Recover the amino acids of this structure.
RNA sequence: GGAGAGGUGCCCGAGCGGUCGAAGGGAACGGUCUUGAAAACCGUCGUGCCAGCAAUGGUACCGUGGGUUCGAAUCCCACCCUCUCCGCCA
């Protein structure tokens, strides 16, 4: 949610920035309700003041009948004003919540994801002396993926993952957890990219996979609800990404300035209904209802927020470099970064089986937009309270990451070479 | 799932219908004392919203949401959470 004061001060800017995100919300209407709200609030507070003064005057003794009659009258008019106020406030809040975060000025303006820009291309797609297969073909031949039985048990877009593919996944998890919690690795990334950020390592976290409606909504990640799994008879949802449960962890807290940034590397299984994607990416395990993910989440000071965003991207790139997977860094345009985002990038990994770069990572910078409703604040050294700035970024998705590995590292025989950095985590195995 | 206890400020904890935003203690911060520190003593010390350039004023908030009342932290109802015991269970 945006700061209403900011909207009052910059109505044209907010209107324009909302349009750039294809979000239709009338700022004029919002401000009209804001004005009404303040007027009614003033009236209500005046009436309450009178009530409080009268109650104070009769302290300790029963008021006279006359006093009670006039107090009842006062109460009636207060109730009226309060009812009206609550109606106006509900509508006001609904509109305010619809206003998207303001994109930073360096975010490309665009109408659809086609307007995203390739910021850079890293690594050369491998050249094969045979026709590269898709991960689905390789994995099926190896007995790594069983979607038929999964369909029997749970339906489409589920899979039993088996054998060496399971081991590969655990190797990746170990590798990333090791690196992100390692001081030398963090120092190296900062130095290589000339970043001015804290050099605090990440804390590994296994979060809950469910989240309450209230907090999901406050994160502004509940919508579109059609893509979320709701738990029957409970006020709970299955999280669609670890950042949903990591970012909400410190809701309603006041953090110490000295404790920031809080950096977490979470591992969680994420769930998506994939509503409206029927028939899309049905092969293999590219688009699943359930997939594991390693996700970074960071809460920090406002002035450090953008550098932190760049830092998380630098880590994403570093990991891809170490895994030696070719990729493109995509500067997402205003229409594609998402409602709570001030900035966002994707990484698309090269997938030889599809002869295309496909999305594997995303990095989101929310400024204080999420923190405002989550009420995650920091007590500054000078005693002031501020909202934190939040950042999240995929460290590596464990469906699409392994897909990229399988397809880029495939051999003529249908085997898959293990990336060097993962070999120590695979018992030294070089090929699977 | 059953029985019980409880949710009050950064923390502990009192209040159980009337200036209560809330005693007391601790922590923190500022000061006095001290060569310095500790101790002691003095002082400061919640947040949101509304109005205001500001000082400040007003209002709301004692788990959440309703209700009773002239008046609710205090009474009633529902829900959420925590703890203890029993049952079940990886």
């Amino acid at each position: 949610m945006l700061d209403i004061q900011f909207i009052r001060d910059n109505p044209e800017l907010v209107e324009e920035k909302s349009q750039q995100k294809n979000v239709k919300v009338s700022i004029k209407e919002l401000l009209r309700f804001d004005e009404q709200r303040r007027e009614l609030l003033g009236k209500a507070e005046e009436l309450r003041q009178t009530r409080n003064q009268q109650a104070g005057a009769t302290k300790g003794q029963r008021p006279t009948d006359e006093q009670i009659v006039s107090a009842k009258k006062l109460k009636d008019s207060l109730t009226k004003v309060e009812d009206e106020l609550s109606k106006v406030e509900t509508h006001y809040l609904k509109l305010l919540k619809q206003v998207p975060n303001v994109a930073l000025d360096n975010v490309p303006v665009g109408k659809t994801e086609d307007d995203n820009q390739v910021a850079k291309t890293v690594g050369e797609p491998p050249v094969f002396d045979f026709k590269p297969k898709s991960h689905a073909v390789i994995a099926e031949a190896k007995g790594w993926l069983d979607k038929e039985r999964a369909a029997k048990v749970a339906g489409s877009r589920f899979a039993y993952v088996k054998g060496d593919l399971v081991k590969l996944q655990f190797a990746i998890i170990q590798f990333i957890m090791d690196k992100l919690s390692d001081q030398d690795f963090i120092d190296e990334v900062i130095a290589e990219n000339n970043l001015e950020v804290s050099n605090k390592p990440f804390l590994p976290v296994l979060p809950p996979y469910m989240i309450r409606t209230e907090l999901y909504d406050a994160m502004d990640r509940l919508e579109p609800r059609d893509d979320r799994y709701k738990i029957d008879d409970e006020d709970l949802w299955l999280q669609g990404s670890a950042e949903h449960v990591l970012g909400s962890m410190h809701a309603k807290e006041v953090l110490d300035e000295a404790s920031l940034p809080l950096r977490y590397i979470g591992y969680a299984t994420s769930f998506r209904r994939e509503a409206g994607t029927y028939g899309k990416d049905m092969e293999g395990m590219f688009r699943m209802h359930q997939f594991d993910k390693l996700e970074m989440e960071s809460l920090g000071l406002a002035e450090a927020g953008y550098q932190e965003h760049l830092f998380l991207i630098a880590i994403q790139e570093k990991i891809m470099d170490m895994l030696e997977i070719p990729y493109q860094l995509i500067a997402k345009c205003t229409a594609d970064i998402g409602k709570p985002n001030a900035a966002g990038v994707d990484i698309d990994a090269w997938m030889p089986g599809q002869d295309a770069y496909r999305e594997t990572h995303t990095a989101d910078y929310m400024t204080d937009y999420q923190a405002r409703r989550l009420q995650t604040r920091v007590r500054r050294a000078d005693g002031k309270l501020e909202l934190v700035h939040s950042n999240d970024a995929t460290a590596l998705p464990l469906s699409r990451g392994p897909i990229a590995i399988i397809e880029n590292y495939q051999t003529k025989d249908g085997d898959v070479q293990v990336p060097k950095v993962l070999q120590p985590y695979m018992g030294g195995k070089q090929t699977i």
Notes: The CA atoms of residues 271 and 290 of chain A lie 5 Å apart. The radius of gyration of chain A is 26 Å. Residues 38, 41-42, 44-46, 48-49, 51-63, 67-72, 74-75, 212, 235, 254, 375, 379, 383, 385 of chain A lie near RNA strand B (CB under 10 Å from a C1'). Chain A has a mean pLDDT of 90.
